[in-house]
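Internal ticket - ligand job 240, S-adenosylmethionine:
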Amino acid sequence: MVEGLSNNFYTGLKQLGLSLSDQQLAQFLRYQQELLDWNTRFNLTAITDPEEVQIKHFLDSLSLLAVYDGSQIDLLDIGSGAGFPGLALKIVRPEWNVTLLEATGKKVTFLRYVIEVLQLEGIAAEQGRAEELAHQAAYRAQFDLVTARAVASLSTLLEYSAPYCRVGGAIVLPKKGDLVDELARGRRAAGHVGATLKADVAVEVSGLVDGRRLLVWRQQKECPAQYPRAGAVMVKKPLG
Ligand code: SAM
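stdout (structure tokens):
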């Protein structure tokens, strides 16, 4: 046990079937310390209680492993903010090649700092907008797994995510609350961008049993070149 990490964090790891090394636990602790320290100067998270960081940021990010796991994959986290879920996943799956995409410069500065102090290799934080980078060949259809937490509605997220996903790859979108209408719109959007809903899985980790779900989409075919459209067009004419 590493001092500074709560019993509930360890319980959650166990529920997810994860057994972390001392080095990985120390990386989480340092990540938490840097997050809370930087948060006094920049607004990175509304969560300021250390145990809540461990449950609502770290475990919530790691819950994605209940629906998708693998070795040597390329992961893209869109709108990563302070690194959730992508940076937390990288700590637990160091062999993954991870790209954190974030529009806000100060958050990218934080992400790059944490990557450096945790001495992580095979992870990069890129500043940019999802709807713009997706049209660059270096990013288009390059990822096995695309995720985005708390960034936009499902139909917008699918339009952001599908262009980055390889055919046969997965898009995992964590969501919470009543999703009946949003999910119907998401399914319609998915049809336009070549994705289909494969699973809708409740998160079962104590401390997180509040209607959290993981929506797993499969990229069935290549996303048509016109997507994603410019942000203003997406707002005016949503796909779903
Ligand atoms: N994913 C993180 C989490 O769950 O803690 C951050 C969530 S925060 C509410 C949303 C983040 O998405 C912000 O940091 C924002 O700058 C970023 N964002 C929003 N739209 C974006 C876009 N089109 N491209 C890239 N980043 C975007």
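Auto-summary: Residues 7-236 form a domain with the Rossmann fold fold (CATH 3.40.50.150). The CA atoms of residues 1 and 22 lie 8 Å apart.
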